[in-house]
Give the backbone structure.
Amino acid sequence: MTRVAVVGGGLAGLVAARRLAEAGVEVELFEARESVGGRVRTDRDGGFAFDRGFQVLFTAYPAVRRELDLEALSLRRFTPGATIARPGRRSVLADPRRAPGALTETLFNRDVRLADKLRVLALQRELAGTDPETLFDAREPASEVDIEAYLAERGFSRRFVERFAAPFYGGVTLDRSLSTSSAVFRYTFRMLSEGDIALPAEGMGAIPAQLADRARAAGATVHTGAEVNRVAPGDGRPTVAADGSERDADAVVVATDPAAAAELTGVTTPDATKGCVTQYFSLPEHVDLATGERLLLNAEGDAPNQVAPLSAVAPEYAPEGKQLLSATFLGDPDEDDATLADRVRGALAAWYPSRRFDRLEHLRTERVEFAQFAQPPGFRESLPAVDAPEGSVYLAGDYTAWSSIQGAMESGRRAAALVRKRHA
Ligand SMILES: Cc1cc2nc3c(=O)[nH]c(=O)nc-3n(C[C@H](O)[C@H](O)[C@H](O)COP(=O)(O)OP(=O)(O)OC[C@H]3O[C@@H](n4cnc5c(N)ncnc54)[C@H](O)[C@@H]3O)c2cc1C
């Protein structure tokens, strides 16, 4: 029987383990932390669900549809669109095709002009006819532009960019300057036109938990608290060293974060990273923010970039009588937690002049140094190939595709397919 070791129990490693085990391969997965999930984790405390930073599931991602039982995740969905927030006013921008009830609000939204709304519809129509798998290849990497230039090429106004695209896609790419590749924009825009933004009722950590259950059910062994210190290509049979012992296998899939993968295999992986700081707040349930279960985008600044009404969308995120909000700052702000929390309080008070926020309680701050790797135009050119390492060692992980749940899951499937082809 073919034996494969998988290093790393994030989404990529879990998908690879399951796919291989289903194909009859004997799989052992080693995850350094006490729990699986990697960058996608949830900590429950005091009746609240704290994801590791604000993160969401795009239900239209093909890999999400392929790898997950979405029904079992009891998804709670954000209303499509967003609320654009500025001092003294909030306005709704909905997708009129998907939320006809919000058509009037959207048409009369003065933050985004009619011409830009028509450009959004035209882009939706154009991208709807394409195969999502080709969206990344629509342009030669050398001629790829960033999101800001792409929107300008298509005639979108500065006002649209500043009030909507910068906070919204800044939140998706963790870069409000929109310097990320337009390929990422086109792909996510297409996914958002087709599906929803959702949270599993039990938190984002339910996603890797389900993947781990599925991998185990297929026969894989999942070790947690098992850091791999060394991967050696060996002479035909690679080995992994974990827990003070060394094991050999027919193949090893290194599905760690990019920095650990570089260390374990010697292959160059992306080293420019993007981070964020997410703060969590509770508010008594009776303080109605009337968000319509939409994200609140800060149209005038990045402190914070966006506020998410988490428990309004997923009531399971907060205990009875309370609501849970998150506020996300992009990058690595210098200010301490209390100063950032004051900024959130100030932003909410400005957006909602008639509400009182004296019972807004700062619950915790998650500083995530590494959330995504940087994806400037043409970034795919420099990503490592699945079989870049020496010998029968293979790579999986978002850094072999693009930085997202889709990229991570798809990379796990791709690595498993190549290992099966060559070894099973
Ligand atoms: C705050 C935040 C917000 C995000 N928002 C979104 C979003 O809204 N939508 C979206 O699609 N994506 C989002 N992402 C990105 C997405 O979560 C990642 O792209 C994806 O989870 C990466 O999965 P992975 O399996 O490739 O890597 P990782 O999740 O990094 O998993 C790697 C695993 O390898 C383990 N490991 C490392 N070294 C070793 C070793 N030596 N031995 C054993 N194990 C090891 C690590 O502990 C980890 O569990 C977000 C990420 C963050 C952090």
User: Anything to note?
Assistant: The chain has twelve helices and 20 strands. Residues 7-13, 30-33, 38-40, 52-53, 55-56, 227-228, 255-257, 260, 276, 368, 371-372, 397-398, 403-408 surround flavin-adenine dinucleotide (CB under 6 Å). Residues 42-77+198-202+273-373 form a domain with the Polyamine Oxidase; Chain A, domain 2 fold (CATH 3.90.660.20).
